[in-house]
Design brief:
The complex is a heterodimer of chains A (about 850) and B (about 250). Chain A has about 850 residues and is an alpha+beta fold. Chain A contains 25 helices and 20 strands. Chain A has 4 domains: about 210 residues, no CATH class; about 180 residues, no CATH class; about 210 residues, no CATH class; about 170 residues, no CATH class. In chain A, a hairpin with a 2-residue loop joins strand 16 and strand 17. In chain A, helix 7 packs parallel to helix 10, helix 9 packs antiparallel against helix 10 and helix 14 runs antiparallel to helix 21. The radius of gyration of chain B is 18 Å and the shape is globular.
Chain lengths: ~850, ~250
């Protein structure tokens, strides 16, 4: 159309004329866009901040770290680097970021800190430090610290000569401030500089460094130097490595993907809804559109007109969606802070606006609107000018429904075969089943209607029969509506089944694993990267308590196998089985733990086994701090403590030798016989006062906390199901509205021959109910298939989750479906009942 | 010189085995500046004839000549252009766009034709003046009476200065007073502006204003008349009765 302005004007007037419907349809876009936007302004920011906090990039020209991030002895590497051509100066550094205990600290609002141990003399040859107050570190300083000047903002009491205590692997240590560095740094994670030996002591890593910083000679070619350094050191080292291989990083990235998928699903339903609405619009305006054709509008002009209207809704929905997304992100950060902290401590959650986030949300919102509007718009273009002038001719649909029923049934049979095959195929089966259901839906309407009609007759008497035959007239439309509802309810059932299965998993694993009396946990129970644990001093002191019989601990390192990242946990095969266990799917408790004590052996989790294709007895070449080492698999087992993705258990002796790690990140202990819980706990707590980075729990309580935190996280699942159900409800409202519009004249006749307002209202309500029941019936089938497929896929990933038939979820879905239907029926039923008889009779 | 001419115009509905002929070899021609009324019993094919003449529908066979162009062979876009520029329609149900004001409705064909909005509105105002509705320009259809809505629809048909106006029972939905107003307006466009007009009606009082009356039955012309005299309406009524009685 030449005059797009006029189109927009008309579109706006039309939209304004039906404000409620416009709002409801626009909401569909709003939700999808908001979800996607909220996700993409929070998580990637978190990932980026995290990456940066872990990045080894400093003020130096070049940094070198171990591939696994492990520490190493400077003698083995520094001289080799020093000799490389183009390297002017070299210094060894031990640095680490770690989470501070949740209790208040001297460092104000900082939630974590970065501690860097340096050799002042060599360091100053590598990079320049500007001291804004006080002095820089001297080589023989002990317990001296240089803090960033910006710290005054969060801890104004700190000045030159101030002292403050800080957690360390060997208990609390006190440091004295000697200077302020001019660099501002991050206030949520301030950087502290100390002498290398202080930091080595604090981390329980005497004589070790984990980073080499290099200053290049003037004019040296960085790429060439980098290559030469690597050649000298071998492939266990990397230059300027970041946080790519971090565990929290992987977890956040996985959730980013899943949440984005949910957003896309919400938009997909949004598209369904817009499609349905615009079909309504095209039917409603058949006369107007036919008239425009009669007075000379081309097909293209009519199509453009409808597209402009849907695009307009897309624009409005997208704008509101961006706003709502921002609010959602803020609320999410606020509401989830607790849960998030306990799982991903150290990953700061905040809102980071990025062009990418805005563009992807806007593009998806507008595209959805355009795409969903396109088909109705094309149909509008095909309206004949004569349509303006003649009553609608009834369309016959039966042929089409029969063939799609056959296609649907074939797909469903195929899907069932795929579902039974299990594994990833089962997920495919779940999706195919859903598609099959959508295809079969129009053909299923009639038989289902017949099936439910006795029920309906019981409730609604004759009005029920009328409602049924009304739906049967437009099985295609009824099917689309029921399908929308079906997808929403299927997702609800899927979520319920997942919550059930994961809850069950947490419970069984907790039963098996939690054999100890007390648990001593770091601030974050699923990410150990940012945890500052304890050295042997803690375990020794605990063991010395008369109240304690056994102590066992867990150590952590990061590794890789054939390019896949692996978490490595170190346990003592002698003590660990006394306080905890694994749920073995290959090997046994006795044999596997015994084997762990001999040579280089490992027990892997199911997920590691399935992703890396490992079996009992396999030998793997594991990346370690000291190059690749061959480990043999002696068991496959699950645990709950770690809740990690791909994990390997090895002995602590091997971890010390191959990963240079001796730090305990989690401890478990059993009381001596006859010691009461309270007395034992009190004894442990006296020791733990020096290690505030840990929290002590009685196992029963800990178990409860864990289960509670997990169920809090499950609320999110249901929230997402709700977001998907909303568009479904809107779809139902739309269909009922169209059905009534199309039957205006008929309703007039019913009223004219003596039907009461109440009867008309009951017909529409019965119709809504019938649609709700269809949707629920289809949704239950699809939901069972989907949950079966997805949970089957869990097992394939190594999480042996039993499939529990989601009875409660199914009942909830039926109730929700019927309630949504009744609720969506209220408005159309009322407006149908209130139709003016005379005008309804004249309506064409 | 004819403005519009049909040639063996035939329209068939229904299946091959049970065809229903809405029109059968209709030959009819309309001269420039002529006001023709088409009359006939219900279902005789009047509307079908009008729709085919206006390019709203396509004939089963036969041709429609608009001046020297055969519109039955045109593609959809070309046909749309013809409707936009050369033909003005008026229908029984006024079919105004409810969300647009009277003047915007009238301007619609011009806007569709790419006339810039200000000019289109200006010309629409002029057309509204022609049908005595200038004072209702900014009212929405729902704020106008039936007769006023129909006059707005006539203004819309006039706005593009079409070669011919085709009106299908324009007074069928109006009371007799409004009906008189509408017919007066139509007659005036013929008398004052030389507008060519074909009008389908049931109402002998309306048909009485026409220059020529064509009676059709079962899809073909059964009679044609140029009536004179004060009792024209009475003559038409009589004729209609005879047409209805005659063997089809
Ligand atoms: N779309 C259609 N399908 C089938 N038959 C039609 C259709 N339109 C019109 N007819 C038939 O064609 C004949 C002429 O119709 P129409 O031109 O509307 O008559 P009139 O306007 O004179 O009352 C009637 O018998 C009618 O039933
Ligand atoms: Mg007719």
């Amino acid at each position: 159309m030449n005059n797009l302005g006029q189109m927009t004007l008309m579109a706006l007037r039309y939209l304004n004329g039906r404000r409620l419907r416009t709002a409801l349809t626009t909401l569909a876009i709003v939700f999808g866009v908001a979800l996607i936007f909220a996700i993409n302004i929070t998580l990637p920011g978190a990932i980026a901040a995290f990456t940066q906090s872990l990045s080894s990039l400093t003020g130096a020209d070049m940094t070198i770290t171990n591939v696994t991030g492990a520490s190493f002895a400077p003698e083995s590497a520094l001289p080799l680097v020093q000799d490389v051509e183009g390297v002017a100066a070299v210094t060894g550094v031990l640095r680490r970021s770690f989470t501070l205990p949740a209790i208040g600290s001297e460092l104000g609002s900082a939630t974590s800190i970065e501690m860097i141990g340096i050799e002042p003399e060599t360091m100053q040859q590598v990079r320049q430090f500007t001291i804004s107050d006080g002095r820089f570190l001297q080589p023989d300083d002990r317990g001296a610290v240089v803090v960033p000047a910006g710290i005054a903002e969060i801890a104004p009491q700190i000045e030159i000569g101030s002292t403050f205590p800080l957690i360390s692997a060997a208990g609390l240590r006190t440091y004295t401030v000697v200077g302020f560095s001019a660099e501002q740094g991050s206030l949520s994670q301030p950087t502290l500089y100390l002498n290398l030996p202080d930091v080595q002591a604090a981390f329980g890593q005497p004589g070790q460094i984990n980073t080499i910083e290099i200053a290049l000679s003037p004019g040296a070619d960085a790429a060439a130097v980098s290559e030469a350094v690597l050649a000298a050191l071998g492939d266990t080292y990397i230059v300027d490595g970041g946080a790519a291989g971090n565990e929290a990083f992987a977890a956040v990235q996985a959730s980013l993907l899943v949440l984005n998928l949910m957003g896309v699903l919400a938009l997909f339903l949004g598209a369904f809804l817009i499609f349905n609405t615009f079909r309504t619009i095209v039917i409603e305006r058949r006369r107007d559109l036919g008239m425009l054709r009669a007075i000379g509008a081309t097909r293209g002009q009519i199509t453009t007109m409808i597209l402009v209207e849907s695009l307009l809704q897309g624009v409005i929905g997208t704008l509101i969606g961006l706003l709502l997304g921002y609010l959602m992100a803020s609320a999410m950060i606020y509401g989830l802070a607790g849960v998030y902290r306990s799982y991903f401590s150290g990953v700061s959650l905040g809102i980071t606006m990025s062009a990418g986030a805005v563009i992807s949300a806007v593009a998806l919102g507008l595209l959805t609107a355009l795409l969903a509007g396109y088909f109705p718009a094309r149909a509008a273009g095909r309206i004949s000018p004569l349509d303006a002038l003649r009553p609608p001719t009834p369309v016959s649909v039966n042929r089409a429904t029969r063939s799609s029923l056959i296609v649907g049934i074939v797909l469903m049979v195929l899907a069932i075969v795929m579902l039974l095959a299990g594994g990833q195929t089962a997920v495919g089966g779940a999706v195919v089943f859903l598609v099959g259901m959508v295809a079969a839906a129009p053909g299923l309407i009639m038989p289902l209607a017949r099936l439910f009609s006795p029920l309906l007759t019981l409730w609604f008497a004759r009005e029920g029969d009328l409602a049924r035959s009304n739906l049967q007239r437009q099985p295609g439309r009824a099917a689309i509506t029921a399908s929308t509802l079906m997808i929403g309810l299927a997702v609800l059932i899927l979520m319920a089944a997942m919550v059930l299965a994961l809850g069950q998993l947490v419970n069984t694993l907790a039963d098996r694993n939690f054999a100890s009396d007390v648990f001593i946990t770091p601030p974050s129970i699923s990410v150990y990267n940012n945890v500052l644990g304890a050295d042997a001093s803690l375990e020794d002191r605990l063991r010395a308590l008369p109240e304690i019989e056994t102590v066992a601990s867990l150590r952590y390192a990061s590794s890789g196998l054939d390019g896949t990242r692996l978490e490595v946990l170190g346990i003592d095969p002698a003590t660990y089985p006394q306080v905890a266990s694994l749920e073995f799917s290959a090997g046994s408790e006795v044999e596997s733990f015994a084997a762990l004590g001999e040579g280089r052996t490992a027990i892997v989790t199911g997920l590691a086994a399935s992703t890396l294709n490992l079996e009992m007895g396999d030998e793997i070449s594991l990346q370690t701090a000291n190059g690749a080492q061959t480990y043999r698999i002696v068991g496959i087992g699950e645990d709950i403590l770690t809740f990690k993705l791909a994990t390997l258990f090895i002995s602590q002796a091997n971890m010390a030798a191959d990963f240079n790690k001796t730090e305990d990140v989690l401890l478990m202990a059993n009381f001596s016989p006859g010691v009461e819980d309270a007395a034992g706990l009190a004894a442990v707590q006296t020791v733990m006062a020096d290690y505030p980075q840990f929290t002590v729990h009685l196992t029963g309580q800990y178990r409860q906390t864990l289960v509670d935190t997990t169920s809090a996280a499950f609320v999110i699942f249901y929230g997402l199901a709700g977001l998907i159900l909303l568009p479904a409800a809107l779809g139902l409202l739309n269909t009922l509205t169209i059905n009534i519009l199309e039957r205006t004249r008929e309703i007039g006749v019913i009223r004219a021959v003596g039907g009461s307002q109440r009867q008309v209202q009951r017909i529409v309500t019965a119709e809504a109910l019938l649609l709700g029941i269809f949707g629920a019936a289809l949704g239950v089938l699809a939901g069972v298939a989907m949950s079966y497929g997805f949970i089957g896929a869990f097992s394939a990933l190594g999480w042996e989750v039993p499939y529990i038939f989601p009875v409660a979820g199914i009942i909830a879905a039926i109730v929700v479906g019927v309630l949504i239907a009744l609720f969506a029926g209220i408005l159309p039923a009322r407006s149908a009942a209130r139709l003016d008889i005379i005008r309804a009779l004249q309506y064409e | 010189m004819f403005i519009l001419k049909t040639e063996s115009l035939t329209k068939k509905y229904g299946s091959e085995s049970q065809p229903i002929y809405a029109l059968r070899d209709l030959n009819m021609s309309v001269e420039a500046g002529e006001f023709v009324a088409i009359m006939g019993p219900s279902g005789s094919g009047k509307s079908t004839a009008l729709y085919l003449m206006g390019g709203l529908d396509r004939p089963t066979s036969g041709h429609v000549w608009l001046r020297d162009k055969d519109i039955t062979t045109m593609n959809d876009d070309a046909l749309s252009k013809v409707r936009r520029e050369s033909i003005g329609f008026v229908f029984q149900f006024f079919n105004l766009i409810p969300v647009l004001t009277a003047v915007e409705n009238v301007a619609m064909p011009l806007i569709l034709d790419g006339v810039p909005r200000p000019q289109a509105l200006e010309r629409a105002e002029a057309a509204l003046k022609q049908v005595d509705l200038a004072n209702r320009a900014s009212h929405r259809p729902s704020e106008l009476s039936g007769g006023q809505q129909q006059r707005a629809a006539i203004a819309r048909a006039l706005a593009a200065k079409p070669a011919i106006i085709l009106a299908d029972e324009p007074t069928g939905n109006l009371d007799s007073r409004s009906s008189d107003e509408v017919v007066a307006v139509l007659r005036r466009t013929v008398d004052d502006f030389g507008q060519t007009l074909v009008l389908v009606t049931h109402d002998p009082r309306v048909a009485a204003h026409a220059d020529r009356i064509v009676f059709i039955k079962d899809g073909n012309i059964v009679d044609e008349n140029r009536l004179k005299g004060a009792d024209r309406a009475e003559q038409i009524r009589e004729k209609l009765g005879r047409v209805a009685m005659s063997e089809g």
